[in-house]
């Protein structure tokens, strides 16, 4: 007997949903330490042993956010105590973020808050936020207030007033004597080479270091309140590598086992990804 078309389509969809995420999306996950391909399930089994899971993104790349959500789903399914840290929200919007997750703020109202915090389309991030809300997973607003970042990027960290520094998380600093500065110099130095005799590049590094330090402090502060929570932090690539936020955490005395998962970008392609910066690299099929 011929199976009705609608039922056949249902079974095709069911089988597709049952496939591992790596097979569905067509991406390859590589363990950088030995260049071996792994499944998402193997990756998440390793993530289960980490205190901090950093998942990088190119902000407007929808597949990167799909991957972030799938890792969160997998870890949630393992019944682990989770919190999701997000670069897209600034620390001074934490109360509004808490209200949204608690269900006391509507999506329409929260979208206005989101738009004040982040310039990219809400729809790129919506599924992550809604999954957190539906499952009551706490979210941490990781970023420092953007007006301070803009000021530092234009005038340098020294331009911040004592009052502005008091609005930063305790311990936030802008010490350029860290491995990430050399990493940025290698990746972005050419862009700034001919601008203001290098001063603009220094301010760029200071702004990046300020954000890394601030995000690290916000993670530390959350873990002081909830010490057994696994943090999944969603940030841009240059904040998520080991010598960025994880390094700032270590410099401030946090002893956290971390796992860093990054999408493949040109700086990490053709074997350029180093285990000193990344644990797992994900390549996606061309559009």
TrEMBL record:
It comes from the Bacteria. Coiled coil: none annotated. Residues 1-25 form the signal peptide. InterPro entries: Cofac_haem-bd_dom. Keywords: Lipoprotein, Signal. It holds the Pfam family Cofac_haem_bdg. Residues 44-249 form the Haem-binding uptake Tiki superfamily ChaN domain. This is ChaN family lipoprotein.
């Amino acid at each position: 007997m011929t199976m009705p078309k609608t039922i056949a389509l249902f079974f095709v969809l069911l089988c597709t949903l049952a496939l591992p995420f790596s097979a569905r999306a067509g991406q390859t996950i590589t363990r950088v330490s030995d260049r071996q391909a792994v499944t998402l399930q193997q990756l998440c089994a390793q993530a289960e042993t980490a205190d901090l899971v950093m998942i990088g993104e190119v902000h407007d790349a929808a597949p990167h956010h799909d991957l972030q959500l799938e890792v969160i789903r997998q870890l949630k399914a393992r019944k682990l105590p989770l919190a999701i840290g997000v670069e897209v929200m600034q620390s001074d919007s934490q109360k509004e973020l808490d209200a949204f997750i608690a269900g006391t703020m509507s999506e329409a109202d929260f979208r206005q808050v989101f738009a004040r915090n982040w310039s990219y389309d809400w729809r790129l991030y919506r599924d992550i936020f809604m999954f957190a809300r539906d499952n009551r997973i706490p979210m941490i607003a990781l970023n420092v207030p953007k007006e301070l970042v803009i000021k530092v990027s234009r005038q340098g960290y020294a331009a911040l007033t004592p009052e502005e520094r008091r609005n930063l998380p305790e311990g936030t600093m802008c010490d350029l004597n860290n491995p990430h500065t050399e990493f940025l110099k290698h990746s972005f130095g050419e862009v700034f080479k001919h601008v203001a005799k290098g001063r603009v590049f220094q301010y760029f590094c200071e702004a990046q270091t300020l954000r890394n330090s601030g995000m690290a402090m916000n993670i530390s502060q959350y873990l002081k309140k909830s010490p057994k929570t696994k943090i999944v932090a969603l940030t841009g690539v240059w904040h998520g590598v080991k010598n960025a936020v994880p390094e700032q955490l270590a410099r401030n005395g946090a002893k956290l086992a971390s796992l860093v998962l990054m999408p493949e970008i040109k700086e990490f392609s053709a074997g350029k990804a180093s285990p000193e910066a990344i644990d797992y690299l994900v390549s996606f099929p061309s559009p």
